[in-house]
């Protein structure tokens, strides 16, 4: 979901002239098409991230900045994500994996800390490796954000595999009274 962010245009200005942006809002996409009509390498499409209309292996890079956070917005406990939210996240990530070319890179930028987000990304079925970096200006009072990088066709670290498996384990039985 590109929203009304200038990121696509900024990438274009940096020399990335083949950028496709999607959002589920037709009004948003119409406004972005009009705003950046002078940039022919920028393409805009109305689309749901859970059902991408692109062919398999059609992108070298997929970049999301806060879009996946929307899937978790109604969650009240980040340690115990609802089955519905987890399924939505899996659906989106499976679609991202599907449209990435071998060797392609998925970049996710979010405020979600690794102990909450890595288990979602660390699924062997997606066929990618996983790295993360904390970003911020070093000010102790500032919020850090996180950059997650997944590379299609590279293996997950065994510790990340274990994280991903924990996400799908059934909860333990209640303790006896």
From TrEMBL:
Ranges where the Methyltransferase type domain occurs: 1-107
Leader peptide range in chain numbering: none
CDD domains linked: AdoMet_MTases
Lineage: superkingdom: Eukaryota
Record GO terms (molecular function): S-adenosylmethionine-dependent methyltransferase activity
GO biological processes: methylation
Keywords, alphabetical: Methyltransferase, Transferase
SUPFAM superfamilies per the UniProt record, alphabetical: S-adenosyl-L-methionine-dependent methyltransferases
Alphabetical list of Gene3D superfamilies matching this protein: Vaccinia Virus protein VP39
Residue stretches spanning the membrane: none
UniProt xrefs under Pfam families: Methyltransf_11 (PF08241)
Assigned protein family: Belongs to the methyltransferase superfamily.
Cross-referenced PANTHER family: EEF1A LYSINE METHYLTRANSFERASE 4, SAM-DEPENDENT METHYLTRANSFERASE SUPERFAMILY PROTEIN
Record protein name field: EFMT4 methyltransferase
Organism: Sclerurus mexicanus (tawny-throated leaftosser)
């Amino acid at each position: 979901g590109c929203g009304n962010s200038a990121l696509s245009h900024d990438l274009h200005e940096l020399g990335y002239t083949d950028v496709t942006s999607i959002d589920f809002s037709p009004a948003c996409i119409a406004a972005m098409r009009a705003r950046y009509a002078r940039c022919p390498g920028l393409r805009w499409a109305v689309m749901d991230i859970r059902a991408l209309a692109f062919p398999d292996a059609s992108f070298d890079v997929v970049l999301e900045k806060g879009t996946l956070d929307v899937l978790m917005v109604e969650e009240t406990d980040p340690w115990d994500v609802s089955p519905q939210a987890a399924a939505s996240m899996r659906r989106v990530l499976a679609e991202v994996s599907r449209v990435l070319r071998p060797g392609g890179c998925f970049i996710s930028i979010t405020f979600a800390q690794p102990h909450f987000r890595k288990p979602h990304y660390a699924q062997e079925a997606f066929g990618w490796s996983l790295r993360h970096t904390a970003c911020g200006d070093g000010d102790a009072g500032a919020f850090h954000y996180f950059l997650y990088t997944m590379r299609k066709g590279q293996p997950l670290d065994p510790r990340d595999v274990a994280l991903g498996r924990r996400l799908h384990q059934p909860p333990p039985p209640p303790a006896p009274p």
